[in-house]
Amino acid sequence: MRIILIGAPGSGKSTQAKLISKNFNIPHISTGDIFRKNISIGTSLGIKAEAYIKKGQLLPDSITISMIEDRLNEEDCKNGFILDGFPRSISQTVSLERILEKKGQHINRVIFLDVPEHIITERIKGRRVCTSCGSVFYSKFTPNKIDNNCDICQELLIQREDDNIDTIKNRVEVYNNSIQPILDYYSDGGPLLVVNGYGGIENIYNKVNKTLSVI
């Protein structure tokens, strides 16, 4: 089963992706994790990516797509995967389809978590990120249990500087504009299904699971 999970920042897509990964025994592929891994072990792509990041520049599609292709060629992806954070543009979407076509594969399901902007804003305002392991907690939805420390590694939790209302609204607007062509690409009888992403984690997952059970 090959899945793309789409959702704005704060939509809860990474949480749902991890649940899908666990319950369907397929790898959760996050672009952020791939970037960090390539940079930490010093691959040729990682070295190139780090140079752009240090300059505060966006990574070219060529680097991102090459990292994704390398990851999809790994053994644990032979029976499927769930993509989180990729594709982010129509050009990346077309490149992904070409990669899969070479392997005789296709995307089985594209799930869009549709969450109202005011809910996303409320979630992100209460977001805290671990300075060590990168785990994310939301004060009103998935709060941590240990004061200002991570439940996973007990290190300090912080609020990101850009987690403020003005920045959040701008990020959501930019995201929505960039993601619409992808939704259009996969609609019209394609693998796209829209899921209401408002509610508790278990409730949302039950809705997501229903869309996957018919594949």
From TrEMBL:
Region (LID): 126-163
Pathway(s) served: Purine metabolism; AMP biosynthesis via salvage pathway; AMP from ADP: step 1/1
Binding-site list for ATP: 10-15, 127, 136-137, 199
Residue positions binding Zn(2+): 130, 133, 150, 153
Catalytic activity: AMP + ATP = 2 ADP
Signal peptide coordinates: none
NADP found in the keyword field: no
GO CC terms: cytoplasm
Main localization, broad class: cytoplasm
BP-aspect Gene Ontology terms: AMP salvage
Stored CDD domains: ADK
Complex formation: Monomer.
Family: Belongs to the adenylate kinase family.
Protein name (Swiss-Prot/TrEMBL): Adenylate kinase
